[in-house]
Amino acid sequence: MKYIDEYRDGGLAQALARTIAAEADPARTYHLMEFCGGHTHAISRYGLEDILPANVRMVHGPGCPVCVLPVGRIDAAIYLARQPGVILCTYGDMLRVPGSKRLSLLKAKAEGCDIRMVYSTMDALKLAQDNPDRQVVFFAIGFETTTPPTAVALKQAQALNLKNFFVFCNHVLTPSAIAQILDSPEVRVLGTVKLDGFIGPAHVSTIIGSAPYEYFAEEYQRPVVIAGFEPLDVLQAVLMLVRQVNQGRFEVENEFARAVTRDGNSKAKALVAEVFELRKSFEWRGLGRVPYSGLRIKAEFARFDAERHWDVPQDSPPDNKACECGAILRGVKKPTDCKLFGTVCTPENPMGSCMVSAEGACAAHWTYGRFRDIKAAPDSKVDP
Amino acid sequence: MTLPRRTHPRPLDIANGRIDLTHGGGGRAMQQLVEELFVAAFDNDALNQRNDQAAFDVPPEMLRGGRMVMTTDGYVISPLFFPGGDIGSLAVHGTVNDVAMAGARPLSLSAGFIIEEGFPLSDLKRIVDSMANASREAGVPVVTGDTKVVEKGKGDGIFITTTGIGVVPPGVNVSGDRARAGDAVLVSGTMGDHGVAVMSQRESLGFDTAILSDSAALHTLVADMVAATPDIHVLRDPTRGGLASTLNEIAVQSGVGIALRESDIPVRPEVKGACELLGLDPLYVANEGKLICICAPEHADTLLAVMRAHPLGRDAALVGTCVEDSHAFVTMRTAMGGNRVVDWLAGEQLPRIC
């Protein structure tokens, strides 16, 4: 497959891994956080941890849009789905995310709510056009990558003068989340989480560009390398970070130059700015309320805003007490540190959000990496 | 000579007609549907006797110590027509394959139709003809059947259930619990073709693709394999859940681990491309004309050669090995050189969102 296989070449990967091992200083450990769930997934799916040297540790960050959505927003979506006449449209990943009281959109659907899985905002618009007597609500979630399509849908709904199309907006911003992690006491004061560098998002950066990361690199003195989602991209980014750390540099470097520029996609950014405005704060699972980290629909498009049309509950029910998703999302804990991991919380029956999306740290480790935990425990060794 | 009195003055209006409740009511309308559509298409001795059951002779293998097998499967696929097949051909191939995966020779099928009121007769005829065609090509007749009509809104067009029986030759013992550490794991061809072909037709995706479903009856391939190596340990067709889920079933049933090599698993470039776009993993995508074979390592070369000599096994490949592992993990050495678990499919495979 042209343009894909080139970035999945096993021989090149081995060679890169050897270079990383040769250049990594054996006297120190490198803690590198990949912010994005796409990277977490690639690392697990291709078994990259196996070929990295032991002193290069990957810390999984909060960049999975499904994982960071708090329970309250899932409950709100279920509330909307239960309103008479409503068809709630959602991306597939959201269906199984647990809300409070062991509910999920999938269970609400089984109860009789009309919930449809869509692949794009255009599907949702079409549903609204095809069902003029129903109210179609699009459950909009995601980082900067999925925001422009929602903006396009709102503009189209306005152009078509649709009276029955609504957006339940949950779009969030990557830079605010990175700042929140770097500002957390675990990183800044206590030093319990060591972060020597960041692998920056791939798709998000195609929109926002590499410039927004320059502030972090400078302010927090941590190198950032923006990388694509293919395994060779990740390995190359690790090598670039190891080199920056070795040389005491903290710059923004762009491994994903084939898609990311310094300024990003100005058209998409303008579109988003036209339709959305910043919320004063937005709740993130694991990070709590983060100032200026979420978007809401501008007054001009208010008639499409589900939160203005319905009295959407704004509660924030707590996560399951034993669930460590919050700490895992901040990089404070590993999936295996959670008591629920693999016992009552599995991808079939997720308790926390990190187990739901394939890009969540827990699901990725359970799905692709859990054989390592067994091999690491000597008492569970199998005698032939 | 006097012709029997015609019970139906006008033939079914296939082009414009629709199924209504009388077609399942047990009266003349139903009889006409059965005669003009089903019996005409399936046309075989057992069915032509027009009894409520089919009678047939004991197959000769039974007198030499063979065993009978029986399987049943419901087909509820959407869309009903997809590139490379339709619900009718699928209902024949799927059940013939389930019989064949015992190393058996399929003998005959039954077919139960649940049709929704309002279903176009032209579509029904297309499906029944395709089914009859598939059964003739496979040499496995549909010998008995049943038709029910449900009210509009109580079904999704048409559901078909087929049951198949077959006979296992003496000395053949193929079973999901017979995989042993050291055994070779073979597949008969490329993975994921069927699932991607069907997905491409889903209304909301609608991408153009040249990928055809691999839907096919595998019993002649199995017959060649069993003739060459009667001691095949496991045969199974990786349908729903794909290669990954099917291997997990076998691993648990047999109490072994399975170690795969990613670079040896055949996947068409078009299927890989479509899976990239949709965020799917070809190892979890359904197949309807492929089989997994697990055998003692010394039989692997013979079986591979036999498979590759058959038109349905041309791309057969050795993809892994069974290993000692009380946790019954299916793992894979990735093209990168790392290892990962190849887990059961959790829920439905859903497209990724960013």
Automatic annotation (TrEMBL), chain A:
Pfam families, per database record: HypD (PF01924)
Protein name as it appears in the record: Hydrogenase maturation factor
Protein source organism: Magnetospirillum aberrantis SpK
Any GO MF annotation of the entry: iron ion binding
PANTHER family: HYDROGENASE MATURATION FACTOR HYPD, HYDROGENASE PROTEIN ASSEMBLY PROTEIN HYPD
Stated family: Belongs to the HypD family.
InterPro entries named among the record's database cross-references: Hyd_form_HypD, HypD_1, HypD_2_sf
Gene Ontology BP, a term: protein maturation
Gene3D superfamilies (UniProt xref): 6.10.20.100, HypD, alpha/beta domain 2 (3.40.50.11740)
Keywords, ordered alphabetically: Iron, Metal-binding
Domain of life: Bacteria
Automatic annotation (TrEMBL), chain B:
Any single Pfam family the record assigns to this protein: AIRS
Positions of the PurM-like N-terminal domain: 64-168
Family indicated by similarity: Belongs to the HypE family.
Domain PurM-like C-terminal residues, every copy: 180-331
Organism (species): Magnetospirillum aberrantis SpK
Gene that this sequence comes from: hypE
UniProt-listed PANTHER family: CARBAMOYL DEHYDRATASE HYPE, HYDROGENASE ISOENZYMES FORMATION PROTEIN HYPE
InterPro entries named among the record's database cross-references: HypE, PurM-like_C_dom, PurM-like_C_sf, PurM-like_N, PurM-like_N_sf
Protein name: Hydrogenase expression/formation protein HypE
Annotated GO biological process: protein maturation
